[in-house]
Write a structure and sequence with these properties.
Layout lengths: L1 E9 L5 E10 L4 E5 L6 H8 L7 E6 L2 E2 L8 H5 L2 E5 L10 H10 L5 H14 L15 H13 L5 E5 L7 H16 L3 E5 L3 H7 L2 E6 L2 E6 L9
Parallel strand pairs: 3-8, 3-9, 6-7, 7-8
Antiparallel strand pairs: 1-2, 1-4, 4-5, 9-10
Helix pairs in contact: 3-4, 3-5, 4-5, 5-6
């Protein structure tokens, strides 16, 4: 699903965020990206959906070398993946249904398909009865559920999540993680950057640890491995 070969990212200010990354994440895996603040996790995540472009090296997503994509081709890349952020990034003037449907409207999906697919994913995330509510009427956990629904409504092969439980209380965080686990069980690859030690240590998925822009540990059924 995702391959990186000798990937380097150097920012204009001279900071080298990642240094010669080599990694492969297969279809259906659930991988945590962990490490200290400033280790390069966010750059690693952002390069996967071309928010950041590598300075050199090769990044393949589902067979396509995305490092070579032109800017106009990037939206087509993102149609095949879901991205979930810590701060939800919902559209405040659209209700729950409209926020999720928007992801399909921009790719000009047929209205009848939009209605069915949005209905299905809102049931999956437990928000079918709140379809007409607006983001500011929802709790933080509910807003994140909307964001997750939006990320999977186009049935992506991979979902990339950057600190998706960072703004949530522990109980709500577990609810969100159980939802991600269910999505993964249906065959979707999940790649998640997180600082949540308890969740990583309990769920025992693949753990990829990054320090100073380099992968220092990669193990299946791993633990968080850091004390802060």
């Amino acid at each position: 699903m995702i391959q990186m070969k000798n990937v380097i990212k150097k920012y204009p200010n001279g900071i080298i965020a990642v240094k010669g990354l080599n990694i492969e994440i297969k279809q259906g895996e659930f991988a945590y990206i962990v490490g200290p603040s400033g280790a390069g996790k966010s750059t690693f995540i952002k390069m996967m959906y071309r928010e950041e472009k590598p300075t050199s090296g090769e990044i393949r997503v589902n067979g396509t070398d995305i490092a070579q994509l032109k800017d106009k081709e990037i939206p087509f890349l993102r149609r095949g993946m879901g991205v979930v952020f810590q701060d939800f990034k919902l559209l405040p003037r659209k209700n729950v249904y409209e926020n999720v449907a928007f992801a399909l409207e921009v790719i000009e999906e047929k209205p009848e398909n939009i209605k069915k697919r949005v209905s299905d994913v809102l049931k999956l995330v437990g928000l079918a009865k709140k379809a007409n509510m607006f983001p500011d009427e929802l709790s933080g956990g509910e807003q994140q559920r909307v964001a997750i629904a939006r990320s999977i409504v186009n049935t992506p092969k991979v979902v990339i999540a950057d600190e998706p439980t960072g703004n949530l209380d522990p109980e709500t965080s577990w609810e969100i993680m159980r939802l991600f686990d269910e999505i993964n069980a249906r065959g979707t690859t999940i790649i998640m950057a997180t600082h949540n030690k308890e969740i990583v240590n309990t769920m025992r998925k693949r753990v990829i640890a990054i320090e100073n822009g380099q992968i220092v540990r990669d193990e299946r059924g791993g633990d968080y491995g850091y004390e802060f």
